[in-house]
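Two proteins were folded this term; both appear here.
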Amino acid sequence: MKRSRPIQILSLVMSILVVIGILTISKESVLAASDGTTGLIYSIWNDKAEITGFTAPAGFGGDLIIPETLGGKSVATIDTEAFDGCTSLKTVSIPMTVKNIYEPPFPNCTNLTAINVNASNTAYKSVDGVLYTKDGKTLICCPLAKSGSVTIPSGTTTIKANAFDGCSKVTSISIPVSVTAIGSGAFQYCSSLTSISIPAGVTSIGYWVFDFCSNLSSIIVDPSNTAYKSADGVLYSKNGIEVIRCPEGKSGSCAISYGATSIKAYAFYKCSIITDITIPNSVKVIADNAFVSCSGLTGVIIPGSVTSIGRASFDTCNNLTMFNVDESNTVYKSIDGVLFSKDGTVLLNCPQGKSGSIAIPNGVTSIGECGFYCCSKLKSISIPNSVTSIGDSAFALCWNLTNITIPSGVKSIEDCTFWGCFSLVSVAIPSGVTSIGTYAFEECVKLTSVSIPNSVKTIGSNAFDQCSGLTGITIPASVTSIGSYAFSICTSLKDAYFFGNTPTMDSTAFSGCAAGFTVHYLSTSTGFTNPWKGYTTVPFTAAAGVSYQTHVQDYGWQDYVMNGAASGTSGQAKRLEAIRIKLDGISGGIEYKTHVQDYGWQDWVSNDALSGTSGESKRLEAIRIRLTGEAANLYDVYYRVHAQNIGWMDRAKNGESA
């Protein structure tokens, strides 16, 4: 008891101190104001002024002189967003009081020609309108509208990240031998540069340094540099093993030096006017995105030495029609210009310039990630039954693909598989698929029909987002989870029919659907309320009538449909191989027989038995259907068929041949 009292008092004292501390901090940072004369917006922090914004005052001519004080306090800091996008600025003068400029300074000030610093400033200085640290060792920022030549003074050791980013009017940059480091993105968007020389002292060059330098045709490295070298204007590591960067303005043919073993990520990014690249038989690794946007390439020869080709290595090479792999290569091979694994089981990359139709060879078991990504000129892709795996984004942005047959062995539709297939009209997902991934069919705007089998358990987020052609969807009883925005902005979707108990789902799943969108649920299902997840719900009962399912070439068994709904495929040239028919809610029975290719008429079967063949690739050529028992006394049964080269034929009834 004696020890508990001091502990309680100490807790009280500590609580008081905390409250006092919070009040003190907030009191020192409350003032925020604007200066009507200069247009500067500022706040007071720890008795110093920080510039946080700028609005050009009336009559502003473009030359801003920042005062030493604002609100009676010394101006010490310029926030990085203070002048973001201030296109009215032409010059800015920084007073001696400023000690901290957040980077990047003056972003998107596209008319800024000079940054001037008071000579008495102890943190910064300017040379020819360019901002440096006071000691001159670090070049911080060149103003975006500076034009002509820039000479960096001797003694500078570092060109900071993005220092010249967007300086599209600078035509040349002279880098002194004192510079040892060039930061990431340092010369991005310097579109007037035609060449640049890297001096002997540079030992570090960051990422994306020369990206979007569309006229840069040559990178020249001093021969005495110990970290880098150049050959034919291309930047390499000193030992020549790594190809680091080919300048975007290089044109015609480019031969990579023999001895190079690795082509680095983005090494040839946007080299759109190179028409031919020779890869020597020393290269082992082509990294991710190595040749992205090389739109001038029409063919690539992969030598025998290559053992690794990274993800999206040839992405957006939209005129590339052929990969040609040397026969000595032990990892890869090409068939009809398409890249495969050596054993032919994995399709890795179809060149994005391929057009028309393509048939994947039988024996391929897997279509790799991004295998047909952005093959926007392909109209038809035939997938053999041997395929059991289709990777992420395999057919994404295949704009002209109108239909696709997914083989029955495929068990999941992965993320983004058909994202952006704007011309895709209908998809039959085979029975056995258990999951539909995120964004799987997003922006398939012409998709009017989707058959989800009773094996699917999960539908991922945004799976059918913006499928504006869908008018209705059936969610089978097997589905237990529907992700966020799964059917959002399906602006024509009016009805969703749920045949099972409520799945896990949030209120965004059908957001932005047609006015009056309604959830219909089977009256025997559980978990539904009205409204449910914010949507109007209406129960329905299983209809009485005739139910039937068909076995379709490459697809397998389709879901049951009822009372005159079409079962099978239309316009896809797929065989109907078997059928099952049953009565629901009607007394009596139903019998049916089919005429099978090469076999002729089979015997009558009844009440959901299989008629046709299984696993023999034989087509159904005709069918007869009749009712028995009480059903025959009360009803007639009508049916018709869609025949190859003929289309829909007239209806038959009560045992007649169709």
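Next, the second protein.
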Amino acid sequence: MDLNLSIIFVLLAASAAISTAAPGGESTIADLTMIHAIQGDGQSSPFQGMKVSIEAIVTADFQGTDKLEGFFVQEEDSDIDDNIETSEGIYIYDPGRLGVKENVTRGDLVIARGHIEEFHGLTQMNLEEIKKKKAGKNENKSTLTAHQLILPLKEDSLERYEGMLLMLPQDLVITDIENFSAYGELAISPQSRLPVPTNVAKPGAPAAQVQELNSRSMIILDDGSGRRFPQSYPFPRTIRCADTIQGIMGIMSYGYGNYRLEPLNISKIMISNPRPTNPEPVGGRLRIASLNLENYFNGNGAGRGFPSARGARSYDEFELQRAKIIQAITDMKADVIGLIEIENDGYGNMSAIHDLCHGLNAREDGIGLGDYSFVDPGSPKLGDDLISVGLIYNRTTIRPIGRAITTSMGAFSSGNRQPLAQTFEEISTLERFTIVVVHLKSKNPPGGDEVADGDNRDCGDGQGYWNGDRTRAANELTDWLSSDPTGSHDPDYLILGDMNSYRNEDPIMALKRAGYVNQISSQLASNSYSYVFQGRWGELDHILASPSLTGQVTGASIWHINSDESPDFGYNGIWSRPDKYRCSDHDPLIAGISLS
């Protein structure tokens, strides 16, 4: 769709009024029914299954199999009713291209006849006959005015605008880009991206209030096409979440369970969230990072064995994933990196963690780092899950002291991912601290033989499934660390990883009650984020320091190279490139430390 075409039929005045000549004479098809009567004031049409005729102005033309195979029409201002619950517009489905034969375009006054149906929630006319109306020489002009839509909505439904021409005068921010490449969709909201409720409010009623506001604040901006992976997009491919769109005019439609705006004109798209080249400075002599690898599985370790149980579907796809992650780690310049979602296949020469370290130390571009090693806890695997956590470190700046330790007790027993703790010593100062990498149970509903009962049920408070297990794991983790499991005799602990819990949820509160300080939330704003789910943003990943270590942390940041990007820049996407952007679905976390 070319958004550089004229907006609609004629140049629009400030009031967005569209002018056309009023018809003369009687209908040549049948007695006419008003569109607001067809739409009714409910979710479905009272004329469903009936054949009717309408007379209205064409407001949008999406004819053709590469678009929506039809067009939208709307009553003139002089014909609207006084019921705000009824829409004055309707979609006309025209797979037979009768509108093309009649040369129907935007601004035409037409008489159309066909059957009314509800197609997956959208009231539409299946076109059987159409005729353009021509005005007499001395006919008066009538107008059609675009309705102004402001977010967040005051009302709880967009049904009253279905099929109508709308103008959105606000600056709107992209809050979701998940379906951009596949369906040409963006989700937009006013002022800023939408938060995960429990990232900014307590679980329960406070989170429910945030969610209610979220539901009135988001709308889908579509591309006027029903094609999967369309050939062209009305937005640049490099657009990112939090970029701004100004001056949208379009038609309110419905499909795939959501109201969606089919755009006719966009005044301006502003790149207000450009790709970051490097992480923000965090200070300190040591840099500690947490990186979710989004299922780093290396097949059989010899270039075969794909598709693996998770991750890349082919060796070529794995090579792309590998290149992207290596580039990100190289640019982070971290001394220790906690890895999440790496294949749990041990620590031998064919293992995933060995493969990653080898790739870092032997970069294909000839600038291999040669400095990284990985922590081997001395066990065949780490627990019984398909994925595990891991640690890699720069052996020129830091060294492990003693053996890495894990626990398989309680909340970390069979069926739950085990943590990994390792004490390190800074080579230049001989100062020590212990890093603990954690990946708590996800929020997903139970699968297979799992049973989520008691406090593991989704209680509707915003914390999802398995909150009980995650909270018990957090409490047991701090109890375990208080026993000095690595024998470090040093109180400096840093817990990092994917907690599958947002800022105000019970597991994070449990860690804070034990004295650990969330370094990201203490240094960044409440709307900071590392992950997006269904257009809602929050910190699913965390770095927490023990009281004694907190004063030695010089800074903390989140490097937004992943979550803001379209998934199709990822290793299994159609736009993927061997760069660091969208190397995972989580953003890396980085903290600076000066041990003393």
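The chain has a mean pLDDT of 91. DSSP finds eleven helices and 29 strands in the chain. These notes refer to the second protein only.
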